[in-house]
Amino acid sequence: xxxxxxxxxxxxxxxxxxxxxxxxxxxxxxxxxxxxxxxxxxxxxxxxxxxxxxxxxxxxxxxxxxxxxxxxxxxxxxxxxxxxxxxxxxxxxxxxxxxxxxxxxxxxxxxxxxxxxxxxxxxxxxxxxxxxxxxxxxxxxxxxxxxxxxxxxxxxxxxxxxxxxxxxxxxxxxxxxxxxxxxxxxxxxxxxxxxxxxxxxxxxxxxxxxxxxxxxxxxxxxxxxxxxxxxxxxxxxxxxxxxxxxxxxxxxxxxxxxxxxxxxxxxxxxxxxxxxxx
Length: 278
Prior knowledge:
Layout: H1 7-27, H2 30-42, E1 44-49, E2 52-56, E3 92-97, H3 101-115, H4 123-132, H5 140-153, H6 170-179, H7 190-202, H8 206-218, H9 226-238, H10 242-254, H11 262-271
Antiparallel strand pairs: 1-2, 1-3
Helix pairs in contact: 1-2, 2-3, 3-4, 4-5, 6-7, 7-8, 8-9, 9-10, 10-11
């Protein structure tokens, strides 16, 4: 956090957060709610005493400013930020937002539900807190629900080329269930993964076509069927999905789900720059 140069600058900082809080509480301003949520994740304190001012963590006492007892948590929803003119030693101003990841989760969800903030900026942030932040109970099931809501709100059609800033794709969520990362028990949920791959494939995601083929090839979440798997690989290859072409070449090489065709396998391998045996 940038240091405040003097008392006047710190006072401006306090006024800014008072504005954020006011707009968040009364005007349902999405940007303000996001700002408050962000600061609840990390915590924020701006303290100025005469010409000395600094930013610090709420957990660190400041010897020239306020007693530690004044660094208590401001209960959400935050409606105001105190600008305190006179205390024992000198004029000072304080802005304190105690670290509260659980409150941040609620704020991010509120930003999406009531303030029109895109899911990729709100629901995914809430999900990441529930999975990764200390100070809040880890809740894999709730996090996956939020990721799913975000993915369905802002569908990613081509998960293979999507940028991280685009949000989370249905395929990525399905992969998490397949690998056990999206379940409370830590065990794979192949059936849930299969259902989500189908949902993504219906939206036109070629990676989902490949995943469906893999599931059918290995019998994960569905009945094993190499012939139908070959069909999904063919569909993926038709839209020039590199992994789909690779899988199709492997099928022709081994005869899994089709007749062996070494010439066709080698031709497909060359198309993706892999002129080698499988």
